[in-house]
């Protein structure tokens, strides 16, 4: 799976899962998001996966205006591949979610392959105080919220982004999502090589057990053969174990504070770059090399960093 022994590290620097009270190191402002992305790229990430937040209170913000300032800085200071979320946050409508990718036409955008429960509320138990009033209802509300990605939603994102030459980080949180990808591939709406980001350990999706990782790969191998590039992300404390498992099996790896705030047991990561460096150590320890941005572009058939609209 790792093409010529090159492993693509994606770093997801802030996301919409964690809230500011959980870690003082979570990037919030455009400056913090740009610095985090550039630091991650310097540490070895070929791709940065980006969300935006309202700088006043850290709330997920999917307006193109919130993305523009850090996209421009990242482009000036790094040649890494920029991947813009279309997941946004589970509280947002699909039209709002797709707007930044439609506006800026990045090389990669995320594409979530199924509707699901997305339980964030257990994290409330660890949080003594909330810095901002939106945090508690946001986390608590995940008990009854669906992260909605219907067939029509997926078609809408594909139709909006595909004409821009944007390709997809196809987020699969369960085995059924691989079959949904297969359905869209049969209809010719997604083209190989598929960049499958399999997600382990979200409450509502597949678990983080080695059997789960093996079953995900086995099923993707059967459905897509040589037509896909496999990447994994482990949520929370499973992050590095899942990365190590998948890298040993020839997979690519995603890390970053979107997926885990930790660098060790009970130890908050101070930067995204720290997690990238740790993933890099694992990859190189296994005898592989990390892919450069241009190697990632070749492996994933991307259009090139000069063909984006920011
Ligand atoms: N937060 C990850 C588990 C997206 O941005 O489209 C999934 C994600 C979704 O990255
Ligand atoms: Zn994301």
Give a verbal description of the structure:
With 310 residues, the chain is an alpha/beta fold. The protein is 37% helix and 17% strand. It has helices at residues 30-43, 64-77, 94-104, 135-140, 151-162, 175-186, 210-224, 239-248, 272-285, 293-300; strands at 6-7, 9-12, 47-50, 81-84, 108-112, 116-117, 146-147, 167-172, 194-200, 228-234, 252-255, 262-264, 267-268, 289-290. Strands 2-3-4-5-8-9-10-11 form an eight-stranded parallel barrel, surrounded by eight helices. A two-stranded parallel ribbon has the order 1-14. Bound molecules: (5S)-5-amino-3-OXO-hexanoic acid and zinc ion. The site of (5S)-5-amino-3-OXO-hexanoic acid has 12 residues, from β5.
Helix content: 25-40%
Whole-number mean pLDDT: 97
Going by CATH, the architecture would be: Alpha-Beta Barrel
Roughly how many Å is the radius of gyration? 17 Å
When the domains are counted, the total is 1
Heterogens: (5S)-5-amino-3-OXO-hexanoic acid, zinc ion
Which superfamily, in CATH terms, is the homologous superfamily? Aldolase class I
N- to C-terminal distance: 32 Å
Order of helices and strands: EEHEHEHEEHEHEHEHEHEEEHEH
- What is the count of DSSP helices, taking H or I runs of 4+ residues? 10
CATH topology: TIM Barrel
Percentage of β-strand residues: 15-25%
Tally the beta strands. 14
Strand order of the largest sheet: 2-3-4-5-8-9-10-11
The level-1 CATH class: Alpha Beta
Largest sheet: 8 strands, parallel, barrel
